[in-house]
Structures are given as C-alpha cells and as structure tokens.
Amino acid sequence: MAIRSKLSATVSLSACAVVLGSIAVPAFGQDVDETAETQPTEEAGESSDDVIIVSGFRESLASSVAEKRRSDLILESVTAEDIGKLPDDSIGESIARLPGVTSQRLNGRANAIAIRGLGPDFSQTLLNGREQTSTGDNRAVEFDQYPSEVVNQVVVYKTPSASLVGQGLVGTIDVRTIRPLETSERVIAIGAKGSYADLGALNAGSKEFGYRVNATYVDQFADNTLGVALAAAYTDEPYQLQEFNAWGYAGDGTAGNPFVIGGSKSFVTSTQLKRFGVNGTVQWEASPTFMVTVDGFYSNFNDDQSKRGIELPLAFGGGFDVDPYDPATGTTTSTAFGEFANSGTFTDVRGVVRNDIFQRKADLYSGGINLDYEGDDGWSAFFDFGYSRTDRNELSIESYSGTGYNGDGFDPQGDGTSLSDTIDFISDSNGTSFNPTLDYSDPNLIVLTDPLGWGGSRIQAGYYNNRIIKDELFQYRLGVAKEIEGFFSAIRFGLNYTDRAKGLTPDEFFVSLPDGATEAPIPQSALLRSTNLDYLGLGPVVSYDARDLIADGTLILDPNTSNDIPAKAYQISEKLMAAYLQVDIEQELGAGVLTGNLGVQAINTEQNSTGLAFIDLDNDGTQDRVDLSLGDNFWDVLPSMNLSLRFDSGWVFRFAASRQIQRPQLDDLRVAISYGINNNEAESPTGLAPFISGSGGNPLLRPYRANAVDFNVEKYFAGGAGVVALQAFYKDIVSYIDGSRTIFDYSAFPVPAGQTPATPIGFLDTEINTGGGDFYGAELSATIPFDIFTGALNGFGATGGVGYTKTKIENAQGDVDQIPGYSEWVANGTLYYDLNGFSARGSVRYRSEFLADFTGFGGSATRRLARAETIVDAQIGYEFQSGSALEGLSLYIQGQNLTNAPFVSQFDVPVPEAVIDNQRYGRRFLAGFTYKF
Fold first, then answer.
1. pTM exceeds 0.85, yes or no
2. What range does the domain containing 338 cover?
C-alpha cells in the first residue's frame, strides 16, 4: 500500500474542500472503486498553501473535475452548488450540459437524455446505484420525476466496469442524494422560486405564473455516528405550447402533382405540472468498520394538459385548388407548381374542433437499505436491498365538435347547401398558416357531433383512453472485496438479483351523445374563453372542458367491447441473476502510476410475458379468449477493462474495452400477438401451406449488444480545477433491434379454426434482433478558469464540449437505419463569472437533427425526424458573504430558451417546407432564493 500512501499525500487542499463541500459519495449498492484517495489532484511544484477555496458554481465545476480525474471509469458529473441547489432548474438541463450529452424537450422541459448522440433507449438510470422503474413505456427514466432540489450529484458513466450493475449501452446515469454523515455540520436550507411563461395563459383555466418551494435538513448526532437528511420539494408550474402539426403530405413532388399538406391537427396546449417529492436518509455508523444506510424517495407527479385546436382534412380530403393562392393580392394565379405547393386554396373543408385532455398521474416509490463493512485488515463487504415502484395512469380524452354530423353541416341558407369552409393557405419551412372563412368560436355554428363520421355506424363524439400501468422492481446485491499486495491492489466478487414486473391494463370508451343523437349544442354554462389560434391564422375556436360535459351527462361513455382492447393488456416479468469478478490495478510505471480494473460480469436473464389473444378455435365465427404465456432464458457474459496511466504533471491517459448490452423496451417484450391462417404458399417460410402468420410483440427478444473501446487523453491544470479532454470511442454493434418479419414457432399457441397448418413454423411481424454495424466518434471537452491567463480574469471561466458521432447500422433488410435519438453533432458551452458571491453565466446547447419521440394517441410513442436546435439559457445571482447580516441567503434570476427556439420535425420528403411539427414553448423566466441556516 506504499503507492496509495504516496499518492494520498499529494491531494491538494482545494480538491479536499470541493469534494467535502459537494457531499459527493459513491453510489450505495455499487461496488465501483473510484479510488478517490489515490489520485493526485495537483500539478507538480504547486503548493497547497497558495490554493484559494472557491464556492458556488466554480466549486460545482471543480468538484466535477475532481470526480472525473480520480475515477478509473470514463465519466462526466454535475454536482450541486450547495445543499438543494443544482446549477440548473432541472436535472435534465444540468445533465444536458455535460460533454457528449444532450436532451430532447417534452412540453418545453429537458426530459429525455441522449448520451454520445444516442437517445434514452440506449442508456440506463440508477438512483443511488439502484435500478429504477420508469414512468414511460420503455426503460428510460423521465427526469421530470425527480425534483432537482433533492439531488446532490449526477454521474454519467460512459464506460462500465464489471462491478457496475445495471449498465447501459452508451452510458449509465447515477442520480445521487445527500448522505448526512458526509457533511461536517448541521444544515437547514429553504428555497423558493417563481416562474413565468412568456406565451401567457393560452387556454382558459391555465396560468402563466408558477412556483416551487423546497426545504432540506441535515444533521448528525451521537458524536457524528448517526446522521439524518430530509429533503422535500413541491412544484406547481405551467407550461404553454403553440403547435402546428400536419397529418402528412400528398403528392409526389412533380410539377403536375406537387407535395401539398394533406391535413392539419394543430393545438394550443397548456400544461399544469404539480409534483411533490421527498427524500430521506438515515446513516448509522455502528462501529468504525460498519455503516448502515437507509434511504427512501417518493414522488407524486400530476401532469395535466388541456389541448384545444382544430383538425382540418385538406388535400387528403379532396377539394384542393391547383391554382396557387397569392397572399400579396389575395387572389389565385395560374403559375405552374414546382415540387411543393407553397400556397393555394382548399374547398369544402369540414373541420373538427378538438377539446382534448391528456393527464398523466404517477406515484414513484424508491428506497432501500445498505449494510457496509470496511475492515482494518483489508477485507470489505456490503449488502444492499433496493425497491422501486411506479403506479401510473395516462388518461387521454378526445372531444369532437363541428358544423354538423358526418360532413352534413348546417344549412344556413335553407337551400340544401351544407356548410363547409374555404381555406387559403401558405406553407413554408416553419409550417402552414391558414385563412379560413368560418368562425370556429361561434357556439351557434359549432356543435357536439361526429363531424367526419369517424365512428362509422356509431356516432362517436370523442374517445376516452385510460392506460393503467404498474411497474415494480426488487433488487438484492452482495459484494466482498480484499485488498492485496502487488500489481493487483484488490479483488472483488459480487452477486445481484433483480426481479421486475411491469403490466398494462387498458380502459377505453367511446364518447357519445345520449339517446343516439347525432348533434347537440354545447351547453352555455360549459363554454370557456375561446382559444386563440391566430399564430396559424385560424383565429379563435370554441372551448370547453370535456370532463365537465361527461360529468353532467351531456356526453356519455360507452365501453369499447372490441377484443382489441383487452388484447393490448400485458404483464412482463424479468428476473436477472448477475455475478461479477473484478481485480483492481495500482502500480508505478516509470514516472506514472497505472490504475484501473479488469473483470467480467455474467448475467442470466429469465423473461416472460403473459397476455390475451382472441382466436376462433371452434370455427363458430366467434372469437375465443386465449391466455398466452411465452418467454426465454439466456446468458450474457460481459468482460471489461479500464486502465488509467496518471502523471504528476496532470496528464492522464485512459483506455477501456468492454462488452456492453442494453435491454429492449419492456413493451416490445409483450406476448400480445394477433395471428391467423395464411394460405399463400409462396410466402411460407417452409414452402408449405397453410401456415400461420401474425404481428405483435416478441417475448423472445434479446438485448442490443456491442463490443466497445474507448481512448481518452486528459490534461489537468490550475490546481486540479481545469481540464482539457479528448475522447475517442468505437462500438461494434453485433446485435441491433429493428421492426421486421421473422420466422416464428407457433407450437405453443392454440391453432386457429379452419385449415390445419402444415407446420407450426410461420411468420411474425415484430421487433427482432438483427445484424448491427459501426458506432464511433470523438468528443473534445474543457473546463478552463480564465485566471490561468491573468489575475485580472479571476472568477471568469468557461466549460463545455463538442461531440461527433457516426453510425452505420443495418436493419433487417440490410439498409442503413436511422437510430432513435441519434444526433451526429452535439455541443454545449457555458461562459461564467463567479466571485465574491456574484455569479453570472450564459449557456448554449446544440444538437443536430435526430429521430425524436412524440406522444401519439393514447400516450403511445411515435418517432419523427427532428431538426437541429440551439437552446440559449442564462442566469445571474448573488450570495451574501460571511459577515453580512444576510449571510446564507442567495438570490438568482434565470432565463430559459431565450431565443424562443422551436422544436421542429420534418416529413420524410426532400423539401424543407414539409413540416410535421412546429412546437413553440416560448421563453421562461424564473426568480428565486435559497437560504441556508
């Protein structure tokens, strides 16, 4: 252990101060050895007596640099500036500023995180080292669920070690909360902030102002052997959205048949987010060698959206005037079209006024107990139990109104002419604006009905869809380690068992009018302030709350008894048994020190899905209910190596190699499969007919798998407060997941009535494992305090990075596939000033175009190509200094999305005017304080 002692003696006073001040600790339940005390944090020749201890944003950066330097894994991190005070308004925004990391906005909030250009499907999120259930259909954690005020640190691991359980393909995000025995004194902190959305209160009943409040208490008792931490935060904030949405585009881009907007479904959306989160931790140092930690987290999340707008069938509904509309003169001309119809007129348009509700409620419970033994003889061990559960309801209500039932419309002239609209339009790269002739806010014109006859023989005035999802996870970990002498400094062995179950129960109804009526007036008492769609030229539309109309009986709910509804239900079980063996490395090599680890992790997966299918088994023309259950059992062996060569001069060279996996989306494992007899012998996989073909989920789906190598060069300076790092990485993706047709064995399934299949081997259209491809890139990042150039710039600095990623992934057909969430370029940067209590900073983050997730009907996800975007934020603040009567008080003002950058998606045609979504969230301004006693 001579080397460990030698290196420990070189740790600078400043590094100790920022690490202790940030209360940063390794994740409980993980046996990841970051050897914090072994890494030099000072350039040769520097004296710790000359080091200035900093605080605030600079302390947060210095702590993150120290975390990066001392770890043997390649990582990035963000640390709270103070108790209950992350550098940004949300966890997602703070993470999105890390090198090689970015985010996708959801309702204006940075919520879905992409690492190294790949979206949330390819990473894993932990809370204090433990795997978590999710509030979405996939495994990705939505960071809205975790109040930033209860989080102390977030670490993004870009490479795994054998002892890191729950790792992802491109990264693992570990969200960490306060550990009370890591503080040196009692802390009581409170905070509050107000928010303002500059788009205003767009919908009746919505707000433009919101607020957050939080409080934190940390204390130690019994001679600092018992510690308690409690943090709580409540949020009540509005978010506003002006959205243009196109159904798609008709035409083929020729002069005689140009691309033209096929239909529009545009909404003004007002969201009220209410969230209460509380986190508590108790630590007991039972003896100098034994620590007990118990922690728990609870979040109640209510995201209530009012979506009001109008749906217009345009080119897909016929009635398109091929003579383009000239907005300058208000007339049409006979100029020939090019490849895109930028203007024109639609006739006989029958719009559907929409008053929709989307409400997501979720309760998240998480916690566990950790027993940690650290002997004085080199032996150490831990046991960790973790529990996570999410109960989620996603309710969507669609409510339709228009000028009449099934396109009939009113007959205001009494001459048999139905009422429809004539709409001029202009399309450009921002979307389409309109000039209608009807007033869609007139309650004498707009009635509750099925305007386009979507219900067929049923008069359908809307639809009610409630998705009830339960997700529960138990996790058990056990680890043992022994320090040894020689090239290998320690050997570690551990076991992990994870038992997860996730299920969906659909609850769906038709929204109808009582007594079979085709139309009904909107009750005067239910009418709200009209919703203004002037940003699209559509003017105001009639507004009401469909929940009120359902409650008073104006609209009624008829159960949807279709077999398609219970067939959507599923229950997925996943049981993982993992074992790992790892050796740590610590050895002098000439003028440097080699540290790292070498190990292997083996995982056995037992996955199973149960659900329903409806099949005519007895040939009586009726569908019989069949319970299905199917699954698989397989192993993954994941070797890994992390090596760091460190020099007293501040240079660190890293090399990492590993086998990595990412499990598929849980809902892709559902057994809900629709199948039947196919008599086309030419399509049979065996050449025999009849055979069975179907579509649905795939309970046999295996993970994404890749072989990866990373190489880093890092230079630390300014007493360990600054760093410049170049990262290069390559992943050979050997197994990818893609939607396609695969050969499937139906021998475990009941045989449909009719002809007996010649073979149980048939086809299934589903998500399958395919061949992979290449994924590689480089990142350049830096944190630079400007006082290294001149003392006149003391307090000034910059941090940020740029990443380039290239992929070439083949799908099942051998074509190059677009990876969800993939951006070729991501970049971010922050300029800051932080000195004597005053702080100011401006931040920019950029990502190139990517395949983005959008919420479709009933909460289901759909993906579209999103354009590149650049987001600009800024913040100023002041912390009253020691000796002031207001010592402990911090004030700050923040501005988000200052350039009002939209979130835009593009239709898959080669013209920029073919916009699918243009979502404008506006600017947000926040002002608040924190006070620490």
1. yes
2. 5-932
